[in-house]
Design brief:
single chain, 115 residues, alpha+beta, Heat Shock Protein 90, 4-stranded antiparallel beta sheet, 2 helices
Length: 115
């Protein structure tokens, strides 16, 4: 769906913008019973602990004025929630960040993409 593509775009763009020389982004997926887990792990600077609890808030940004709206991760959170999923972040300053998305799988094949 276009919504899920927007989620992936937002997370990948944030990772790229925060990246440094030698930047790497690893995207992995796992099937967990009735869920799919998608991890986006980078080796960027990490998210400081004092702001981690605000990164999904609307209009929150660490970017310079005029370079970000502060809506990317908020929109991402709302989209994932609308699909009955969750998004979590784990980050270590100076070592990188992992965004983990858990989405429920459709109950039957015909349910896919019914949004």
């Amino acid at each position: 769906s276009a919504h899920i593509c927007q989620v992936f775009f937002n997370i990948i763009l944030n990772a790229i913008q925060a990246g440094k020389e030698g930047f790497k982004l690893i995207i992995s997926t796992r099937h967990l019973s009735n869920l799919v887990k998608i991890d986006f792990s980078d080796n960027g600077p990490g998210i400081p602990e004092n702001i981690r609890n605000r990164i999904f808030d609307p209009f929150f940004t660490t970017k310079e004025v005029g370079t970000g709206t502060g809506m990317g991760l908020n929109v991402t959170y709302e989209i994932i929630s609308s699909y009955g999923g969750t998004i979590e972040v784990k980050s270590e300053t100076g070592k990188g960040t992992t965004f983990s998305i858990l989405l429920p799988l459709p109950q039957k094949a015909g349910d896919a993409g019914v949004r």
